[in-house]
Design brief:
The complex is a heterodimer of chains A (533) and B (301).
Chain A: H1 2-22, E1 25-30, H2 45-51, E2 59-61, E3 67-69, E4 72-79, E5 82-87, H3 101-110, E6 128-132, E7 138-143, H4 150-154, E8 166-172, E9 179-183, H5 187-191, E10 201-207, E11 211-216, E12 229-234, H6 238-247, E13 252-254, H7 261-266, E14 270-285, H8 305-313, H9 317-324, E15 329-331, H10 354-363, E16 371-377, H11 384-397, E17 401-407, H12 409-417, E18 423-429, H13 436-443, H14 463-473, H15 478-494, E19 499-511, E20 514-516, E21 529-531
Parallel strand pairs in A: 1-12, 1-13, 16-17, 16-18
Antiparallel strand pairs in A: 2-3, 4-5, 5-7, 6-7, 8-9, 10-11, 11-12, 13-19, 14-18, 14-19, 15-19, 20-21
Helix pairs in contact in A: 8-10, 13-14, 14-15
Chain B: H1 2-5, H2 15-25, H3 27-44, H4 46-49, H5 90-126, H6 128-142, H7 146-157, H8 161-187, H9 191-198, H10 203-239, H11 251-259, H12 268-295
Helix pairs in contact in B: 3-5, 3-12, 5-6, 5-8, 5-10, 5-11, 5-12, 6-8, 7-8, 8-10, 10-11, 10-12, 11-12
The chains are: A alpha+beta (533), B mainly alpha (301).
């Protein structure tokens, strides 16, 4: 009897101990911790990739950022100003409540109402003028002007249950603030796991600075995850993150540093997967017809398009790829990555031509070059500071004596905002996965009131580009719009309004027993981590 | 008679001679001094000794980047210590980096010493509320970790060799002020100062002509140690990315650059600058340690 009890206890204990090992658990080492799980709080890659585990959007983006059905099974433009979304009938929140159009309206209403949001999602609601729900599974969105990007915008907004707020009576959408909603769930509520989503994983734990734990949602409407439990560990320092993978503390890491990749690739126990991202690394040049802070000349030489072209020709993009990026990049000739919507196949990267650069500089009246300061962050993009140094080398050799001013990202971005740089290196991830995003932000004439040139700190203004872009943004026809975007990209390069350097290739490293489908948006999501066959 | 005819053969030993004799008696300290002198010499002669000018971007070639020690360059001459990812010859970069590190260390020490000396003497000699004011300022400053003050200052001032020196001076002057005040308080009660006062010598002459020379011995010790400390602090600041500009690396910056490559097996990028920094700081500390032993009467046998 006694023995039997002990044996049973031992057996049970053995099972309990063995259980986590045999169950499908996944531990992921993150390079950056999300600031919240709230899908409407902070528009940032770590946040956006994390919330997709818990919350779905009406429209989703696949690994190549093409739109695929999410909580809306289909959508179409009934007329240029009206979009109809047919909602999924088989989706339910983690607490069992079925998903209906009311939840969608509730979530859209919450987007501009998130207090203290460091970077709001409100821009994705800008175009929505009216919302109607003819029945529980149909959503009608109306815009004031033709707006082809509406489904893309919807793919960025996570859907929360209406139950999580205080809803009194029917919800009436108003641009100034919805009626019928007394209170929305707070960001803290969502971080504490009090708000269920419809996504493939269920919240278990969020300990800031230490771990985020999710479990599989057995009732998910889509493809169910291969993992019972997923644990995310933020390990921001590159070396320790790689060490954690080598030691087996985690199974999978994002952003292994490029200089470690050759070693990781050689390791028989590991697998490295990489894919082109939507991020373009570029150099922006102040083209103002006025003196510029980084160049001590009475006239701004960069105002001359020939000088800008010369600086582009002086850079050996292939050498930067081989020597600085360890192959983790693709030389760029425009500001949208190869293969994304709007990419113009006719625009090739400028090939390394130091003689041509010197000739153009001489033609522009600077046979002996000039001195310039190149600003750069040193902890934002892959090898950012090293790329800036390499560019400084090339420019100096072409006669333009360059000093690199590299600082931490917060300092860099605030100084860039104050226009302290005549030339700076930065990157742009096309969050929407198509060309209008970089065109609008980087090279359109600065008109913040309509969202143009919000990241254009170089006084570049090309009215022809703006006209083409504006036309594209009002064209619902996909084929025609793509042509217009390609044309706008060509405009930006016609007078070297911006100098594209390369597109980042994002690497992920994992145990040999796993695989990952690389995502263009650089997201690290457990849904794409699968056991290797 | 005979005593006056043949003068005594005993040589008169000046204090400097005595210091030198006692210093040379310790082989380790002498070794430290010789090593530091050698390092300082190659640092000063860097433009002549280095195969490449690592600050001239036009002479670098990233195609020569990340080469192992001993790999020959285009002219067939080997990169003795390898290259970093920008194609900088590590040997040249270390020699030039030493120049910056030692220059910053010595420069900031001299400046901080002058300021600290003046403040300490002023405080000790004037006494009263002036003394209190200066010394509370010193207390306040010493209450914060030096690295914190330097980080804040550099965050405000930005990068640059001159700015690093300013930050190091701001961090260090208080040590000197406190040390000088201590010894000056003792000295000013001695008879020779009273005698000088009775002669109605001017204030500046008493302070700088009489008081100051007698306060110097402990200060020499502190200054020697602080040079090593300043070099290490500059390396720390550059390692953290707030020190010197990236295109003009000091030793700390070289170590920071190479740190990225530690996991990938390219040890030479941070290993050699690290060793150089270690040797430099240790040699200065050996000298300083022994100086302290000599100049501290309590430790005399």
């Amino acid at each position: 009897m006694q023995h039997g009890l002990i044996a049973t206890t031992a057996l049970v204990t053995g099972l309990l101990v063995a259980a986590p090992a045999s169950a499908a658990d996944l531990k992921i080492g993150l390079a950056a911790e999300p600031s919240a799980l709230d899908p409407h709080y902070h528009n940032l890659i770590p946040n956006n990739s994390m919330f997709t585990h818990l919350f779905d959007s009406l429209v989703e983006q696949d690994a190549n950022q093409h739109l695929i059905p999410g909580l809306a099974s289909s959508w179409k433009a009934i007329d240029p100003l009206t979009w109809e979304f047919k909602l999924r009938k088989d989706a339910a929140f983690h607490d069992g409540t079925p998903f209906t159009a009311k939840d969608a309206v509730f979530s859209l209403c919450r987007v501009p109402k998130v207090p203290n949001s460091p970077s709001a999602f409100t821009i994705y609601m800008k175009a929505v003028a009216a919302v109607e729900t003819p029945d529980d599974h149909t959503l009608i969105l109306k815009t004031a002007t033709p707006y082809p990007m509406l489904p893309t915008d919807m793919s960025t907004l996570g859907i929360l249950p209406a139950k999580s707020g205080k809803v009194a009576g029917p919800i009436v959408f108003k641009k100034t603030g919805c009626e019928g909603i007394e209170a929305y769930p707070s960001t803290e509520d969502i971080n504490a796991g009090k708000v269920p989503g419809t996504g493939p994983f269920v919240f278990k734990e969020f300990v800031k600075g230490d771990r985020i734990v999710f479990t599989r949602n057995p009732n998910f409407w889509g493809a169910k995850s291969a993992w019972d439990t997923v644990t995310f560990k933020p390990i921001p320092a590159d070396g320790p993150r790689v060490a954690a993978l080598l030691a087996g503390d985690v199974d999978f890491i994002e952003n292994p540093p490029s200089q470690d990749l050759p070693k990781l690739r050689k390791d028989a126990k590991l697998r490295v997967v990489d894919g082109l991202s939507n991020r373009t690394i570029y150099v922006a040049l102040d083209s103002a017809d006025a003196p510029t802070p980084g160049i001590k000349l009475p006239k701004n030489p960069l105002h001359d398009a020939r000088v800008r072209k010369a600086l582009s020709l002086a850079i050996d993009r292939k050498a930067i790829r081989a020597k600085i990026m360890g192959g983790q990049s693709e030389p760029a000739g425009q500001i949208i990555s190869t293969g994304l919507y709007g990419y113009n196949p006719a625009l090739k990267p400028d090939s390394f031509d130091p003689k041509g650069a010197k000739k153009l500089l001489a033609e522009a009246g600077y046979p002996n070059g000039f001195e310039i300061v190149l600003g750069s962050p040193n902890d934002r993009y892959m090898n950012d500071e090293k790329i800036a140094q390499a560019i400084a080398q090339y420019w100096t050799r072409a006669g333009v004596k360059t000093r690199v001013d590299a600082t931490t990202k917060s300092v860099f971005f605030s100084r860039r905002g104050k226009r302290e740089f005549s030339a700076y290196l930065a990157g742009w991830g096309a969050g929407t996965g198509e060309a209008s995003s970089p065109l609008k932000s980087l090279v359109a004439c600065r008109k913040p009131e309509i969202g143009y040139g919000t990241t254009n700190y170089t006084n570049y203004c090309n009215p022809k580009l703006d006209a083409t872009l504006t036309e594209a943004l009002a064209t619902i026809d996909d084929k025609k719009r793509e042509g217009l975007l390609q044309q706008a990209l060509a405009e930006a390069q016609s007078d070297t309004g911006i100098v594209p350097i390369h597109y980042e290739k994002t690497p992920w490293a994992m145990k040999k027993s796993l695989t990952y489908t690389p995502r263009v948006d650089q997201y690290t999501v457990a849904m794409e981590v699968k056991p290797a066959k | 008679m005979s005593a006056t005819a043949s003068p005594s053969p005993v040589a008169v030993e000046t204090p400097l001679h005595r210091l030198a004799r006692k210093f040379a008696a310790n082989r380790v300290a002498l070794g430290g001094l010789i090593v530091f002198a050698a390092i300082a010499l190659v640092a000063i002669a860097a433009p002549l000794a280095a195969p490449q000018n690592p600050y001239d971007l036009a002479s670098l070639d990233i195609m020569d980047g990340s080469l192992e020690p001993g790999t020959p360059n285009a002219d067939g001459r080997p990169y003795l210590l390898g290259t970093d990812e920008q194609g900088r010859d590590m040997l040249s970069a270390i020699l030039y980096g030493l120049r910056i590190s030692i220059g910053v260390g010595v420069g900031s020490t001299v400046l901080a010493l002058s300021i600290g000396l003046a403040m300490g003497l002023f405080a000790a000699y004037s006494g009263g509320w002036r003394d209190t004011l200066v010394m509370r300022l010193v207390d306040l400053q010493l209450g914060f970790p030096p690295i914190l003050i330097a980080l804040i200052l550099l965050a405000i001032l930005g990068r640059g060799v001159d700015k690093v020196i300013i930050a190091l001076v701001a961090v260090q002057w208080a040590y000197y002020a406190r040390t000088v005040r201590g010894s000056a308080l003792v000295e000013r009660r001695k008879e020779y100062i009273e005698a000088a006062r009775c002669l109605a010598l001017p204030y500046t002459r008493i302070v700088f002509g009489h008081l100051m020379p007698n306060c110097l011995p402990p200060l020499i010790v502190v200054a020697t140690m602080q040079v090593a400390h300043a070099i290490a602090l500059e390396a720390t600041l550059s390692f953290l990315g707030v020190g010197v500009p990236v295109t003009e690396p000091s030793l700390g910056m070289l170590i920071a650059n190479g740190f990225d490559f530690m996991m990938s097996g390219k040890y030479w990028v941070s290993f050699f600058p690290g060793i150089t920094l270690l040797v430099t700081v240790v040699s200065i500390n050996l000298v300083g340690d022994h100086l302290r032993d000599i100049l501290n009467p309590r430790l005399q046998k």
